[in-house]
Amino acid sequence: MKTIRNVLPESWSLVFSAAGSAYGVGLLGLWALPFLISAIIHDLQLNEAQAGLLMSAEFGFTMLASLLVAPFMGRAPRRTLALLGTVLAIAANLVSANVDSLYGLAAVRCVAGIGAGLALACGNAAVSSAKHPDRIAGHMNVLSVVLMIVVMLGYAKVMALYGLSGLYYAMAATMAVMLLAIPAMAQRAPVADAAPVSLGSGKGGGNILLSLPAICMMLAMFVFQARDTMGWAFVERIGTMVGYSGDELGVLLSFQSFVGLIGPLIAAMVGKRFGMSTPVILAILLTGATSLSYVLGEHSKTLYTAGVMTICVTYFYALSYLTGLAAALDREGRVVAAASSFLSLGLAVGPAISGGLISLGGFTLAAWGIGVTVVLTLLLVSVPLASIRREPAPLTPAVAL
């Protein structure tokens, strides 16, 4: 019974509302990215670099909105902001489906990014209010993988039938479903959790976002996500190069999403049983190896397939631990909310960087860029990990299984 109790979340309403807001709205553009990039290139007659820049503009505003509200997550009305952001993103997607001008579309996508950023910050901040933030993050990612399976299967068919406008309608419909879960989110951080833990800050809660562990955590999330998006943005196009048809890729991507359930489930069950450092470092190395496998697999269908099949397993395993680490730095949710904004910044620059590298030196040069980001992530994450290890023992029972 104790084992079952350890696996189950402490609050289903927290899991569903936070996952719906952060992943069903805030990061929906990430799950749909390969299809959006391909549809933009085909329907708008743009090249890889131009398509990457268009998506980067949207994700850039996601980052901006998330970062601006992050300092106020300890007292902000989270549920209200998440609902407002979701409605704004839905409206922007509906307008995007009917815009003919490229510049008009870019402007509307920026508005969609603002809405997604508000939802992303509020959903991730809610994790910090949990007694076991790392475990809640793991369960959230299980739901995120389920959503990704639906996206991979459904959006592939929508893109084939209705193109870019159909994808925007599908995103609006998906976000509308999330409106059913978000009202269950707590409006504000619980009073008991509002007292700043400020791991590694030593200066009080007010300056937690300016502490070295917090800054390194935010930069680590940025580089981690940039690495992922650098390859993920073009995974569909690489697949066609190695010989997969559109329908085959849809099945392959949906199946790897299903396999990806293993990643967050492992993170949710294992928790901190082996500490924090070893799982985090292992996660970063595994995600880097996965990205390199399918990016360098442009001439090898076997290598590409092996890389694709481990995308979700490694990504969500890593994201569960990184989110839990950020949440542990500050129980008011300011660090994890700010870190999620830098996650969005990684989304923003990833497609643009890889698009430029591919234009200059093909996928081989993009792979070198991915290798650099893996090393940088390891260096940056070492600071918050050291901060966690220096904290007094009283925090340990709150997160131990």
From TrEMBL:
InterPro entries: MFS, MFS_dom, MFS_Efflux_Transporters, MFS_trans_sf. It is found in: Cell membrane. It comes from the Bacteria. The chain crosses the membrane at residues 12-41, 53-74, 81-99, 105-127, 139-160, 166-186, 207-226, 249-268, 280-297, 303-323, 335-353, 365-386. Keywords: Cell membrane, Membrane, Transmembrane, Transmembrane helix. It is a multi-pass membrane protein. The keyword Disulfide bond does not apply. Residues 10-389 form the Major facilitator superfamily (MFS) profile domain. Gene3D superfamilies: MFS general substrate transporter like domains. This is MFS transporter. It comes from Pseudomonas urmiensis.
